Structure formats: structure tokens, C-alpha cells
Amino acid sequence: MNNDNKKTENLALKAGAWYVVSSVVVKAISIITTPIFTRLLSKSEYGTVATFSSWHALLLIFCTLNLTYSIGRAKLDFKGQLDDYIGSMQLLSGIVSFFLLMVTIIFINPISVLLELSKPATLILVVYLFFGPTVSFYQNGFRYQYKYKQNIAIAWYIALGTVFFSLFFVLSNEAYRAEWRMAGIAFPTILLSSAFWINSIRHKRLNFNKEYWKYGLSISLPLILHTLSLNLLSQSDRIFISKMCGTEDTALYSLVYNYSLFLSIVMNSIADGWLPWFHDNYFSGNKELIHKNSKKLVVLGCYIGLGCIAIAPEAILLLGGKDYLLGLPCVLPVVLGVTCQYIYTHYVNIELHLKKTKYVSGGTIFATVLNLVLNLILIPRYGFVAAAYTTLASYIALLIIHFGITRIKLRIRLYDDPFMFGAMIVTSLVAVVVTMTYDNIVARYGLLVVGFLTFLLYFKEYIGSFLKKSVSRNFK
Fold first, then answer.
1. Residue 292 burial (CB < 10 Å; 0-12/13-18/19+)?
2. For 232-256, b where at least 16 C-beta lie within 10 A, e where not — what string?
3. I want to staple 128 with a disulfide (CB 3.0 to 4.6 A). Which of 79, 114, 186, 247 is the partner?
């Protein structure tokens, strides 16, 4: 049993590491190619593509019905039936997406006006929405079976395919370049999804299973409000700043927010690698193992967050230039907010595993309302920087809420709670010290070196084990 635990732990660690590396590279591809498309498209066309992407992110929530959230627990409750379960969820999502496709075709005129997209763009959007969820289902299936190579291959294919087809379509056509860019974004997913549909049909995995559907919907439907609220929480700041402070302040805040997306990508990748292992071990009763390893995971996230804060002046200068350094005061609260979100996700994992998803949505809705109220009160008084602190306050509220749900409502004591909160407090204090050295690059990078050395010391066991395995493989 111990050997099995060690094996799955190593798989989870390896998967998490590869998810982080792959996600960063994929994001880098997107960033590197962005200047190409900003030059190939006019500002109006580029804005239209951004609108297309925003609608896709929003409507995808309804097309998938958030059923992907149920896969991790379904693997345990329907042992040996995961492929059939995913196929059933794929069918259910396909029916919803097909209904949306048909309604759009019938009412194409008013819907395209509502979305502020041309008719061809609207059709590309709904076709993209029909095929997209299947790729998500397969990716999650691979993730929960620790098949990280397949998952990473999908991410690379879509990233590179999107760039290739977008360039090919846009450069091959002088007119309707925005629509051709959208087609380039959707086409790789449509091709891959078609292959997955054929595979599901061939292996007879597409099935109507009342038990599966009831199970999946009971877990996933309450999370729709959670996902929508999170989107509103992340987007509302910029809307308020635009209305109350002007577009220039919005640009300053947006650049800092986009910088924090790098941190989100890394932390989400770590969490994605951890979650399958968490489900397996919680289900098996290995709670002490989770208790122990969760500390390492939290500390890792805190170190990454502090690193982002430490190099922020150079990063902001590189991304936006000197004018954007005015947004530097937002870095501390924004990055701490992402770190806080990373920590409270550990409590959310318990709620997901126990299928108490209604609590997840309730907490997120409260935090979103809190954020909106604080924005209304503080932004007019203190300017755009206040928006960063209201977001941090909302994430701290979520940490307290989910801690309360697991400890008081569910009566689960899995983590070292003083350690979790202490890690957030210590990280915040160190972050304040780091920001005080922004004008002294020698002192700041001195702190960065000290932090890196303590990181190596704290994780010496894992680093040593990794290096030992790498050397042994190379000399075999």
C-alpha cells in the first residue's frame, strides 16, 4: 500500500511539474504571437476578436454545465467506468450545445446584434462552443488518470495550431480578417474534438445514463453560479475603474492584472496536478499524507508569489514601459489575492470531494457582492489602487468562508489550519518588506537571493530526489 501511495505521489508530482512547464510555455507562445496579430488586425478587428473570446469564455460555462468538476469524484464512485462516465457527460453537454447551435441559426439576426458580432462570427462562436467541451472532457479524463503526456500534447497542439491556422487564414484573406482570426482560434479545437467524437462513437461511450446524468448535474449545476461569480469578481474591477477613474487608470490596472495571470497559470497548474492525487488519497483514507504534503504545496505557492512581487518593477517595465510603473502599487494586493485563492482552493477541494458544491457557490457569490460594494465605496475615494485591495479583501473573505464551511459545517479537520493562515500572514508581511525595497535594486535582489536559498533548503529533500533520479536515468 505504501509503495502504491509513493507511486501515485510521484506521478502527481511529475504531472504537476509538467503542467507548470507546459502551461508557462503555452502562455509564452500566446504572448509572443500577440504583437503579430495586433499588427495584422486593425484596433477594431482586434477588439472584435477580444469580444468573441469573452463570449466564448462565458457561454462555455453553460455548454459544459461545469460537468468537468464531477469527473474527479466520479472516478472513485464509478470505479472502472470513468470512460463511460465521461462519454455520458460528453453526450449531455453535446445536446445542450447543439440546442444552442440550433437556436442561434434560427435567430441569427437578433443574437448577432446582442453579441455585437457579425453573423459569420456568431456562427463560428456557436460551432466552437459545440466542439470545445469534448476536448475539456478528454483532458480532464487524462488528468485524473495521470496521463499527463496526452494532456500536455493537447495543450501544445491547440496552442501551436491556433497560431498556425490563424496566421494562414488571416494572411490568405484581405477581407473579414477578424472572422478569419476567430476561425483560426476555433479550427484546431474543432479538428481535435471531431476525432474525439469519432473515438467515443467507435468505442460506444456516448450513452444516456440516468444515474450518471443525475450524479454529474447534482455536483456541477451549483458551480455554475460559482464560475459566473468568479468571472464577475475578476472583471468588475476594470469596469468600475473605467467608469470612475478613466481608461488610462484601467490600462495601468489591467497590465498588473495580466502580469498576475502568469502566477495564476503556474498555481492552477500545480493545483491541477495535485487534485487527482488528493481525490484518490482522501477516498482511501490517507489523510495524514494529505496533511503533510499540503504544507509543502502551500509554501511552494507562497514562494512563487513572493518571487513575482520581488521582480515586479522589471516585469512591469518590460511589459508596458515606464508609463505603466504607476500601476506598481497594485502588484502587492493583486499577487497576494492570487496566493490567497491558491490557499483556499485546498478547502474547496474538500467540498468538491464530499459533493457539497452548493457551499462553493454560496461563498463565491458573497465574496463577489462584497467586492462590488467595496469598489463602489473605495474607488471614488482612493482611486484605481483601491480596486486591487478590494479584490484581496474578497479573496481573504473566501479563505475564511471555506475554512468555516469545512471546519464548522462539514466538521472536517484535514489541514494544519494555523499553518495555512500563518503562511498567508507571513507571506503578506514579507511582501510588504519587499515592496519597501522597490527603489533599492541591490537590497531587493539581495532579499530575492536569500529567499531562493531558503527555498532550496526547505525543498532540499524533493530537489535531491529529483536530481538523483535524473542522474540515474542518464547513466543507465
1. exposed
2. bbbebbbebbbebbeeebbbbbbbb
3. 186
